[in-house]
Amino acid sequence: MAEARAGQRAVYFVAASHFVLASFLGWGWCFVRLHVWAASGRQQYNVLGAWNAVTHERVTEINTTYLTATSVCALLRKIAALGGTVPVTLVLDNARYQRCALVQNVVQELGIELLFLPSHSPNLNWIERLWKFMKKEALNGRHHQDFKRFQDAIDGCLADLPTKHRQKVATLMPHNFQTWDDVPLLNA
């Protein structure tokens, strides 16, 4: 991160969010029973995203089927096409489709470094904070009548990140990390 802040490296946090069409109800109570219409929840909008830790630039690969190694390769090519002159490091979780041979070959071809986080640690991946924010802004407390409106709500929130939501997002991604030196492991 020090190299990224100094302009010597580009660091992107990468993860996917699988938005599923459903009613995202808030909470409440009433004296009369109220029927709430809900979607089937079978359609999903997959967003594989990369978030630049310094510039807050966002790169996405979106589909409505499945995220696979080819989706990761497409995202890698988009990041490489940005044309930076500094080395690129991607911080990723341990999804299998991100570790396969196809992705490794593209990484070598493009000269990108991959840094995998420990398993089951989404709290270490900054972009997970972004996904949580987007669900809150675009989906919570709302019922989308059809999949098109659902997609539009997510796309609208993505489009508003650098403008309308800029200040809110900046508070989610501060550069104050806690580190430890020489931590002894406890015996179990």
TrEMBL record:
Pfam families documented for this protein: DDE_3
InterPro entries for the chain: RNaseH-like_sf (IPR012337), RNaseH_sf (IPR036397), Tc1-like_DDE_dom (IPR038717)
Domain of life of the source: Bacteria
Stretches assigned to the Tc1-like transposase DDE domain: 42-150
Keyword Isomerase carried by entry: no
Keyword Ligase: no
UniProtKB keywords: Membrane, Transmembrane, Transmembrane helix
Transmembrane segments: 12-32
GO molecular function terms noted in the UniProt entry: nucleic acid binding
UniProt name for this protein: Mobile element protein
